[in-house]
Amino acid sequence: MTDRHDLPAGFRWGVSTAAYQIEGAVDEDGRGRSVWDAFCERPGAVRNGESGRVACDHYRRWPQDVELMRELGVDGYRFSIAWPRVRPTGRGPVNTAGLDFYDRLVDGLLDAGITPLPTLFHWDLPQALEDAGGWLRRETAFRFAEYASTVADRLGDRVPAWITLNEPFVHMVYGYALGIHAPGRALMLDALPAAHHQLLAHGLAAADLRGRGLDVLIANNLTPVRPASDAPGDRAAAEAYDALHNRLFTDPLLLGRYPDLSAYGVGPDLRGAVRDGDLDLIAGPGLNGLGVNYYNPTRIAAPTGPGLPFAEAPVEGVPRTHFGWPVVPEGLRELLLTLRERYGDALPPVTVTENGCSTDDSLDDAFRTDYLAGHLDALARATADGIDVRGYYTWSLLDNFEWGEGFGERFGLVHVDFATQQRTPKSSFAWYRDLIAAHRAKSAAR
């Protein structure tokens, strides 16, 4: 039976993090204020009133964290660059000290034999841009393109591949539609322009990066959508949810058009956001790879009242993470097969840019090891089915600030004592290290 030991030769192993979740140093060396700085100051917005003000203190302790990655044996490190650390107000003067930090980090990674894979936007919009309208405003896409160009000017000689955006679906829904993430707006369907403007930002930045000979990816949270039953209402609701969660952020990139959103009473212009030529910018010059962040499938039923055209239903009969998320490893293979069926030759090579789980505070995290093993087995079966999967980046290297949950959910291979900043590898760290070494040895023997 195909399992994780049968992943193809040349498969890239990695770990992922994000700037606001680990860096800290929010007021230092010229960094500007982000939407998460402001959101964390709202009473009740984040559990226990916590914030990423210090987080894992990675801004100072990055050499220690690179050494952990060297010990782990990973090929790649996916991290994010904080826009407000580079352009404090989102536009205008560049903060050289911020670029210097990422310059040192990139050199440190390369010295350790680790390929950097930066994400340009992982939800930490400069607050000054949010004050001017944020992602609801078209102008933000052009400011993002300027910022991306600035970073590429500094790092593009050593960084071969870039991720433009992380999880634009989650940022739109949690940040602009529901208000449970920064910037904390609760606009429901009026948040849809934030989808288009993020994708436009991707298209503008991708054109610049590809023009430099650099590879471009985008990472989105994708989920296999399952109807709660075969009843027509449940199936229609599942199709409507799939259009919002998956197709809204993938069809424009790979097919050059938005999906049918008529179930939401929304036309193809996304409430006036789409202009002539925008979809050409979003779809071209194309992607070198699609980043897939997978955590769980979604079960959908027909709505029971007015409002959205779907209702979420529980996924039953499976284990759950500390966060309460259902554990369904086969959903990863199901998702990848659906992408191939849906997009055919338009589907670029896939990299799993996030996959992982929260557990309790124990250093013996056998639950995480089982979780990773199951998902990597499913991934190996997907590659045996002919899906071109180039790599796997687990979430996350370190326990970190988990957005609205504060420090209560721990996703790391490495335990962090947030009072002392002591790092201690968990049992899953050793398991992942040994798996990488075994795969590398098997590949060399082929």
From TrEMBL:
Native organism: Kitasatospora saccharophila
This protein's record includes keyword Iron: no
Class of this enzyme: hydrolase
Reactions that this protein is recorded to catalyse: Hydrolysis of terminal, non-reducing beta-D-glucosyl residues with release of beta-D-glucose
Name of the protein this chain belongs to: Beta-glucosidase
Family recorded in the similarity comment: Belongs to the glycosyl hydrolase 1 family.
Entry EC no(s): 3.2.1.21
Record InterPro entries: GH, GH_1_N_CS, Glyco_hydro_1, Glyco_hydro_1_beta-glucosidase
Record key words, sorted: Carbohydrate metabolism, Cellulose degradation, Glycosidase, Hydrolase, Polysaccharide degradation
Pfam family, one: Glyco_hydro_1
